[in-house]
Design a protein that fits this description.
alpha/beta; Rossmann fold; 7 strands; globular
């Protein structure tokens, strides 16, 4: 079924974000951007567009602000660990736009490549990026591998959030033709069980840092950003506390 288009949020009955969510998002954005208002407006507008689109098609399980808010906060808090000099990224499996479209709302000057194989979701991402006037955001419809190899130059960072089990994803990204070097993966606490320590120490990928954060003041538990680099030939390097440095 083709994407029917994003209805006007007001006509779709989408209310303004509740004040407590607005306040939480502002506090989360302030360490990243001063002043935070322009980015806050874009993030909230994105939330309205997603909720409005959800009234005419199924893009995500978050059908109201109460369920969408924690996902927005998750993405904003994770953005603190993006490299401070990052100029481009590739969101592998963007879905409804998290984290890629949220990151683009925060940093519209970055070149954002959003990859999504589902046609209606890709169409939503394009319409939302246009509505938000994110001129540096490009949407690619198709499999991640196919879209990545078409890009020249390749984006500096590949990021993903809740796409598929960690071992399966890392195996896909190991393909020599992809030549990926730097990964930014947003994961839950099960990542430790899914990726055994011996594989982290001797496999293709090297864990640089596991960066914990609590986006919803403990209500939804601890989340983690994994900083992962391709292992250089004949070289071992121990993980550091945070090789990129928090954005401030």
């Amino acid at each position: 079924m083709p994407f029917p288009g994003i209805p006007d949020p007001k006509q779709a009955g989408i209310p303004e974000a509740p004040p407590e969510l607005v306040a939480s998002l502002r506090l989360a954005i302030e360490p990243l951007l001063d002043p935070p208002e322009a980015a806050l407006v874009r993030v909230l507008r994105y939330g309205q567009l997603l909720l409005a689109a959800n009234t005419v098609t199924n893009l995500t399980g978050a059908k109201d602000w109460k369920r969408l808010g924690p996902h927005l906060l998750d993405c904003v808090y994770a953005a603190r660990f993006l490299p401070s000099d990052l100029r481009s990224f590739f969101d592998w499996g963007s879905g409804g736009g998290m984290p890629g479209l949220v990151f683009a709302c925060l940093y519209p000057q970055m070149k954002a490549h959003l990859c999504e194989r589902n046609g209606k979701k890709a169409d939503f991402l394009r319409e939302a990026a246009d509505a938000l006037e994110l001129l540096e955001t490009e949407v690619h419809r198709g499999q991640g591998e196919e879209q990545w190899i078409k890009l020249d130059p390749h984006p500096e960072l590949m990021l993903a959030r809740a796409v598929e089990p960690l071992p399966k994803l890392l195996k896909r990204l190991t393909a020599p033709r992809l030549r990926m070097r730097n990964l930014f993966l947003m994961v839950g606490p099960r990542w430790v069980e899914e990726w055994p320590e011996e594989e982290r120490e001797s496999g293709h990928w090297m864990l640089q840092a596991a960066l914990d954060y609590e986006p919803n003041q403990g209500e939804s538990g601890t989340r983690t950003v994994l900083s992962i680099h391709a292992r250089p030939p004949k070289r071992n390097k121990a993980p550091t506390s945070n090789p990129w440095g928090k954005r401030s």
